[in-house]
């Protein structure tokens, strides 16, 4: 997609060291930004790119290493979202975020089909 002027970046609620470790383990080509303060998430919500992007502060889980532990996620854990924008035209090509509920098994189902989404985005990028 870079040849079409599109950069793909992942952002997570982990520290940068943890994001770098995940990128290495997953052999991921795109950069992963660790944003433990959730500044990007708050910006995307405020600017209307992902207005329903959920940030979970307390899940009630007993795992002291993850969710529910303010030392691990001091400002909450951002739930999955996808955003494709064309910055040069200030155009949103696609946006999606999960709002955890019992209907989607707390965000575990109903996510975009990645290959189909990728084809849609490629078509939109080529159309301009």
How would you describe this structure to a colleague?
With 128 residues, this protein is of the alpha+beta class. Strands 1-2 form a two-stranded parallel ribbon. A two-stranded antiparallel sheet has the order 3-4. A two-stranded antiparallel ribbon has the order 5-6. Strand 1, helix 1 and strand 2 form a beta-alpha-beta unit.
What are the defining features of this structure?
single chain; about 130 residues; alpha+beta; two-stranded parallel sheet; two-stranded antiparallel sheet; 3 helices; 6 strands
Please outline the helices and strands.
Layout: E1 10-12, H1 16-26, E2 32-34, H2 39-46, E3 55-56, E4 77-78, E5 81-86, E6 91-97, H3 114-127
Structure summarized in a few sentences:
The protein is 26% helix and 18% strand. The chain is an alpha+beta fold.
Terminus-to-terminus distance: 14 Å
Q: In which range does the helix fraction lie?
A: 25-40%
User: What is the strand content?
Assistant: 15-25%
Biggest sheet, strands in spatial order?
Answer: 1-2
Q: Helical segment tally?
A: 3
Radius of gyration, whole Å: 16 Å
Major sheet: 2 strands, parallel
| Low confidence ranges | none
Strand/helix succession: EHEHEEEEH
**Net shape:** globular
Mean pLDDT: 82
Please tally the β strands and state the result.
6
Structural class: alpha+beta
């Amino acid at each position: 997609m870079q040849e079409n002027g599109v950069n793909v970046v992942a952002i997570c609620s982990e520290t940068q060291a943890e994001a770098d470790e995940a990128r290495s383990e997953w052999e991921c080509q795109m950069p992963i930004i660790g944003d433990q303060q959730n500044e990007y998430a708050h910006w995307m919500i405020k600017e209307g790119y992902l207005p329903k992007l959920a940030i979970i502060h307390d899940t009630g889980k007993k795992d002291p290493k993850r969710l529910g532990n303010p030392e691990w996620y001091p400002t909450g854990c951002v739930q999955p979202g996808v955003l494709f924008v064309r910055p040069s035209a200030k155009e949103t090509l696609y946006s999606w975020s999960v709002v955890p509920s019992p209907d989607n098994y707390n965000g575990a189902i109903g996510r975009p089909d990645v290959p189909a989404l990728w084809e849609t985005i490629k078509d939109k990028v080529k159309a301009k």
